[in-house]
Amino acid sequence: TMYDTIKDYHDAKGRQLSLIFMKLPNKNEYPDYYEVIKQPMNMEKIAQTLKNNGYESLDELVSDFILMFDNACKYNEPDSQIYKDALILQRLVLQTKLQLSEDEESVPDVSAAVQEILATIFTALYNHQDEEGRCYSDSMAELPEHDMIDGKK
């Protein structure tokens, strides 16, 4: 199932990326999270909705996954591990949806397909790593606030 695919995904180092998404942040430790994020979502809530047959379509399930990963990207800094993990898992959701949709042999939603392709390209570029596992994007994350020319601001 899509849920299991996301939950059980491990990166090249064997790290299970979904663990941080199982529960929502503690309200006492991260009160600002609930000010920034208006629709909190986590893996446990998705699992409960699945268990109760609360999703009428694959698109509804995908929407909750995308909401969860969008929330992570909205709240966390782009150079944080959780932000990068959210992008990787979001790409996995979109790829899994594409595979499941192809099995149904339905008419493709071109707009959604273009958005998925762009998201995949962005994620691949953002998370591209060198041989030592460093993300290239990390070196561009913090740009200087001003240009120095001949020692002058």
Automatic annotation (TrEMBL):
Transmembrane segments: none annotated. GO terms for molecular function: chromatin binding. Its main location: nucleus. The lineage of its organism: Eukaryota, Metazoa, Ecdysozoa, Arthropoda, Hexapoda. It comes from Bracon brevicornis. One of its GO terms (biological process) is chromatin remodeling. SMART domains: BROMO (SM00297). Keywords: Bromodomain, Chromatin regulator, Nucleus, Repeat, Transcription, Transcription regulation. It is found in: Nucleus. PANTHER family: PROTEIN POLYBROMO-1 (PTHR16062:SF19), SWI/SNF-RELATED (PTHR16062). This is Bromo domain-containing protein. GO terms for cellular component: RSC-type complex; SWI/SNF complex. Residues 13-83 form the Bromo domain.
